[in-house]
Protein 1
Amino acid sequence: SGKVTEGLRMDRSLVRLQPRNPLAHYNLACSLSLKKRKKEAVESLETAVSLGYKDFEWMAKDPALQPLEGYSGFVILLEKLRDNH
């Protein structure tokens, strides 16, 4: 848990430093997911996608996003991505 908290802090810093970097937002989403902050994680994923993140197959199976499995916001996001790509 300490490493996840430290990672979350680092990811937040990276997003502040590189607000247009889709991978920074994706990594922030992973940290938020691991902290069980589902709504914030999905919002970060949506930002990553809007900035150009495209590896939707990985997103659907990324172990760091497993806590989002079954969460309605994540399910809706994945469905939207499958429909649009």
Protein 2
Amino acid sequence: GPPTSRRRLKAAVCEAAPPAAGRAAARGGADDAARRLGVSCGYFHALYKKYFDTTFLSDVVRARVQAAEELLLAADSVERIAERCGYNNTEHFIRQFRARTGTTPTGYRKSR
């Protein structure tokens, strides 16, 4: 049935995404988490917002940028880091990174 506790929802969410820093982004995301919980994707998003006071997508982006920050300390290219963090489009990654951190991935790397 539908999740009745924050713990159950969080467990399902953690299995699907967002990933722990440094790991590639989970595939399937909200759809997989909703399926595991036996609820619709729309209801999953509503529960996520209710329990975590943010959107699922916002948390995924936050986790991806956090992972990228760690990966940028190494020598990998920005393109490879974007790919490792679950982005199919490097420009989209750069835009989201800048929106979250106030700088580009290259600027972040140079400042470290």
Protein 3
Amino acid sequence: MVPKNEYAPYFEQYLQLVDQGKYIVENLIESQKEFDATLRNLDASKHNFAYEEGKWSLKELVQHTIDTERVFTYRALCFARNDKTDLPGFDQDIFTQNDDSNSRKFEDLLNEMKVVRESSIALFKSFSDEVLERIGVASNNKMSVRALGYLFSCHQIHHLNIVKERYL
């Protein structure tokens, strides 16, 4: 279990989505497999579909998942290396407005997500238990490397649940 002092209360909703008794890397592998298996063979008519006006298209959702994992991976790396610099937040809506994902091939987005996840897995395999407990500050909140590792899977599962409920 990730102790509550290792993440902001906002992230509780996400952390409940994974088995924290499992090693971080197991969750990373499992959530990526399910994400890819669910999205890989969707009909092309769904790729640019948004379930409601003002909501992200499926392509934008996948790009958002990629972008968030990249931002959080940078945070995990900084904290793991004991960089005490307070890191800024990021505005997911500005990222999405400027990502040009709707003009990309859906398969390319899924392949990029796979590569990003493989990179995250390699990074977390390199961390010792001591490193996982290191804490830094991002978006004015304390966060441990361990919490970030679980959040990658949680965030992906959260969005996959939305896909299943509202896009399929």
Protein 4
Amino acid sequence: MIRMELNIVNMYPDILNMYGDIGNLISITKRCQWRGIKVNQIISTLGTDLTMKDDEIDMIIIGGGSDNQQ
């Protein structure tokens, strides 16, 4: 049996908080669990050293931020 894994980088969830796309991350994680795919969530924020090779990152998620300036 092939073991599948998905590496997802979540960019700036602490800064964007409720605008940080956490809902999409939860949805993707749950759908992967249903299919037996392991999800590794990597948090990246200001000051984080994200030293990963391109082939180690499968998906990058970043929220749209607040809309109050519009």
